[in-house]
Amino acid sequence: MSGYRKNDVHWPKSNAPVGGAAVGEVHGRRIRIGDQWLIDFASGNYLGFDLNEEIMDTIAGRVRQWGTYPSWSRLGSLSPYIEIEERLGKLLRAPDTMVLPATTHIHSSLIPALAGIGTVFVDEHAHETIYHGGRTARADGARLQRFRVDDLDDLTRRLAASSTGVRMVCVNGVDSITGNLLDLPTLARVCREHAALLYIDDIHGFGVIGERGPDEISPYGSQGNSIVQHFNETYDNIILVAGFSEAYSSPLAFIALATPLKQHLTQVTGHMYAQPSSTASIATTLAGLDVNEREGDLIRANLHDKTARLLAHIRATKVSTGSTHPCGIPIIALPIAHSDDLPSIAQVLWEQGIHVTLTDYPYVARDQIGFRIQINTAHTNDDIDQLINALNLLTEMPVLRSDR
């Protein structure tokens, strides 16, 4: 195969955008940036709902009914909010739910409200917005500590040492870079043994993974009802926060929690005064729930097949990947051998028509510098082939970290 080699004296001068780039046009999973068309492997949209005709067609009717923007706070809640919360509760098997515009807003107001003057433990790999919520809690009088979720002995010691006040452990359900799943049963046991509240952000798991059973048609499980159900856990001492943005392609978020806690939060936080969601987000969420109920498991099986195909190729070439969970979540991390090569790698991918998320320090730890691939059901087999060809070129150079 022709192409660049790592030992070439001169790398090509990069004209690929390493930072943010404006997308000028979209056709399916192909996007135009400037004059270059690329296959988009950088967005979520795991279930392909952003391109689903049935879901798109529901927007106009809802807008005619409610206007483009129903500008009431949740104190003046629309009936569609109530419908979403009721359907979510059944899907998640949760005691209660609360629907709000964004997980960022939930973290910034909910974590301080729950922590009080207690202690907030935030995993080092948790979403940055969770850490911001912890910092707000610290400004209000709480203590804030970082820990590593893969070192539960250390967390156990920390929990035992902070025996007064609320103790709150904040983590991702599915890691946003590697796609690896939290060891929820073990962490939940540790938290319950120390009467700590476990706060899970599962924005990358909701809609993809769900409850396990003999009738499941993929290792993701069924219904896409989140990591709590995937591990057959209860909501005792657990608060689940997630959103519809990654899997359902709709900018809406939610909390799954006990009803008394929901009633308490409506009085002590700014949630009820939050900026409302657009009618389009409400409409697409409701339509997405319909599609999920009717054919979601078939969609997820298709998603798993495409992800498994790509992962099998990567592992056969002995390229190292941070994505190690056996069920193959459609987030694939590829760390690179030398961080200085990242701009040139971006250039090669650009020229091969591939758009990915570059993961550079300090966005990730130095040993995770590389890029992230996200698969969704709207990708075609030809799209996957083109990505594989680009990865083969990088493997030959070689610039990807190797397991050899």
Strand order of the largest sheet: 4-10-9-8-7-5-6
Main sheet summary: 7 strands, mixed
The CATH topology of the largest domain turns out to be: Aspartate Aminotransferase, domain 2
- The N- and C-terminal alpha carbons lie at a distance of 21 Å
Structural summary, described in words:
This protein has 404 residues and is α/β, with parallel strands linked by helices. The protein has 2 domains: 25-51 and 295-396, Aspartate Aminotransferase, domain 1, CATH 3.90.1150; 55-292, Aspartate Aminotransferase, domain 2, CATH 3.40.640. It is 38% helix and 16% strand. It is built from 11 helices and 14 strands. The chain has helices at residues 53-66, 79-92, 103-115, 128-139, 152-161, 184-193, 226-230, 259-268, 279-316, 342-351, 381-396; strands spanning 25-27, 30-33, 36-40, 96-100, 119-123, 143-147, 167-172, 197-201, 238-243, 253-257, 331-335, 354-355, 357-359, 370-374. The strands form 3 sheets. A 7-stranded mixed sheet has the order 4-10-9-8-7-5-6, with helices on both faces. It has a 4-stranded mixed sheet with strand order 1-2-3-12. A hairpin with a 2-residue loop joins β1 (25-27) and β2 (30-33). α1 packs antiparallel against α9 and α3 runs parallel beside α4. The longest helix is centred in the C-terminal third of the chain and has 38 residues, at 279-316. The radius of gyration is 22 Å and the shape is globular. The two termini are 21 Å apart.
